[in-house]
Amino acid sequence: MLAFDARRYIGSVIGVYDGTGRKVGRPGRRSTTEFIVLAGDRERLAAVEAAEAEGQRSVSSMVSE
Question: Is the pTM of this model over 0.70?
Fold first, then answer.
């Protein structure tokens, strides 16, 4: 399983106003933790895990082979 921080959608910020523009709520959190569950052969999963640990963002090429 991989976990990473991601920006939340803009609705969490602009959704605090009603149709007339009056503030009716408070903005929510600006980020969230996304989780991805991976399945596959051990060698490919080990390569993806190593790339993620090194901070490489582009592991999709290893997953889609």
Answer: no
